[in-house]
Amino acid sequence: MTRIPINPELLRWARGRAGIAQEDLAARFRKLPEWESGESQPTLKQLEKFAGAVHVPFGYLVLREPPDERLPIADFRTIADTAKAKASPDLIDTLYAMQRRQAWLREHLVGNEAEPLAFAASARLADDPDAVGREMRRTLGLNEGWAAGVRSWQDAVNELRRMIEQLGVMAVINGIVGNNTHRRLSMAEFRGFALTDSYAPLIFVNGADAKSAQMFTLAHELAHIWLGEGGLSGFENLLPGGTDVEDWCNRAAAEFLVPSRELQERWMQYRRKQHPFEDLGRSFKVSPVVAARRAMDLKLIERSTFFEFYEHYINREHRRGATSSGGDFYNNQNTRVGKLFATHVMGAAMGGEIGFREAYELTGLRGGTFQKYAGRLGILLP
After folding, report:
1. What is the pLDDT, as a whole number, of residue 258?
2. Rounded distance, CA 5 to CA 11, Å?
């Protein structure tokens, strides 16, 4: 049986990259200690299975030494110590998957003589972010008080994501890697990212976050598209202080979600309530922290009032703990894949532009699930 000569350091690196202890893989790979010490070598099939178990591309394991794996986009995260830490395999794999989608869709659209999106990279850092936030609302067609008429945060997230996709921006919300429920994305690592492009911009929101927080991340990443500055975002208090780019996108997102004029008009009504920021959050479909921060920025409350509320709210949320996600598999594909991307891929497969195997790879769906999701979108495949 043919053995594959590999550098044992690569096996140790790949296992460490995935954060998996050697003993946790012992049941599947009894010879792993010998492989890692160089006493013996795995077969091709064993090495392929090992690559899958530690979520690393097979090609990495046959290199001479471990690769210097870096984030493929700018890192704007302001979570304490996060920017210094290496990105997890889950984040890296998600980034690469979204970059593949973007590259394919861009080539497809350009090949079909689509026009570039006028709003993409239309703003500059020197522009007033509040004015850009209002322009974003006008472009999406959001009327004053639209969020108050939406029943729940989930409905608001769905509606905002749908409207963003209607502009031509892929908007993906997912709390796991693809459809692998064993690979959950860490909200502590990142909240979202934006991949800018004039034809196929993409927004990704970490679906492990609360729905009210997802609203802010959607708006924040949309501001990145408007600015033409893609990157990875992560922040602890939803409206952080960070780089000039992050500060600008935060301000644009805040005005987009909670317009200053609307908040000032409603403040007298809400200020006397027992829980004014929670009530405002429900009205605008944003986190109470965002509502409170907006009130502070507009000088409706003192800084001490905001930080007192913020500490109380965060401590309360930590006690509640994280919520799990689930739901109907095919409904989840509306956010994990999205109608915008899926319809282009399915149309290309039906027209012979690409094979169905490539369509499966691009969407992360296979055979019957691909067919059934197409049916959910009203697309009849041959």
Report:
1. 94
2. 12
